[in-house]
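Suppose you are handed a protein chain with no further information: no name, no annotation, nothing but its sequence. What can you learn? This example shows the usual starting point.
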Amino acid sequence: MPTVNDMTTTYADFAPSRPLRMLRQLGIDTQYALLGFPLGILTVALLLPFFFLGLGTTVIWIGIVIMPATLIMARGFAAVERARIRPVLHRDMPHPYYKKRKDAGWVRRMITPLTDGQAWLDLVHGAFRFIPSTIAFIFTVTWWAGALGGLSWSLWGWATLGEGNDGLPELLGFNSDYTTDVVFYLIIGAFFAVTLYPVVRGVALLEALFARGLLSGVNELRTQVAEANAAREVAQAQKAAAVSAEATALRKLERDIHDGPQQRLVRLAMDLGRAEQQFATNPEAARATLAEALTQTRETLDELRALSRGIAPPILVDRGLQAALTALAGRCTVPVDLDAPIVERLDPAVESTAYFVVAESLTNVAKHSRAGEVQVSVQRLATGLLVSVSDDGIGGASLAKGHGLAGLDDRVRAAGGVLSLDSPEGEGTRITAALPL
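A reasonable first move is to predict its three-dimensional structure. Written in structure tokens, the prediction is:
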């Protein structure tokens, strides 16, 4: 009996083979070229007379009505052509932007097409499309006739032979019989059949690309410019966020050093000075002072190690994100449920950002949330890394400037990611960061 694996199929099993795809494309290109010729003639026959009539009657104001109507007619033909070229170019032709004035009077709405550049490009396409359409039509008909006629000549060619009816070989100066004529026409038919696909494909692309350049080229260029501007704005926002995050981190580091190690070092210096004075008069008191100074030294080293972890944790660099998060969870004063499966090493900037998201979140949980438990989840997705930290505390957290999480938001945006916060009052807090890879 067949197993599940035997019955498993993929799209590739049903995908058409290359010859079938070529044959299908040949049919699409052929109908496109054959239909384009009468459409081109019809477009020219309708647009040009109305255009010149409107142009000639502009002086008596009648043309002010005829010209916009002509441009609207050209827009209709352009819409048909955009739909026709989709299967030829294998891409959608987006509808371009046309000027609209809905809040203006009827006179201004009527003459709006006259100020629309795309409307005039539609008219230019309608006026000159018969040139590539005619070229495509002639080549398509010629190659199809040569292929079909040459290959099938042996079936009907005998009817054209007879006294006074010389065939093509005789007209070319060859002295041939019927068998020679059959071979000659088979060679001609084979040549046209072999070159049929590239020739028809080439002339169809010529006609389609001419239409695309006029009917969608400006719109595509405008879209590319808009995307470039958007990318530049995103880059500027990321740069500003990086600068802000760096400034916030430096201010926090300066404050932590001032409030912690610096104060301990000042006290250490004072204790050592007192011990020096006590050695001459009270050695026992000097030893007690030195012991206390030694304790201060150990505490200062612990604080410096903690600060160094906030700058560049060695465990993150050496062993990766999963080990660093495990160490964070172990140091947190609130029980942590960590779900961070081991994945391959990621970009250092991504790992560092993910680490600081969890570290800052756990710090805020320990200081402000009054939570009984916190859950940390890190998931590797196809498009990026998803980091989530949620607790069952009092909620009320904010990403606004002046709050502890504002710098975290800047750090995530600097990495190109997005940070979201859900913290209703009394219902806990959930921080989610999506980081691109």
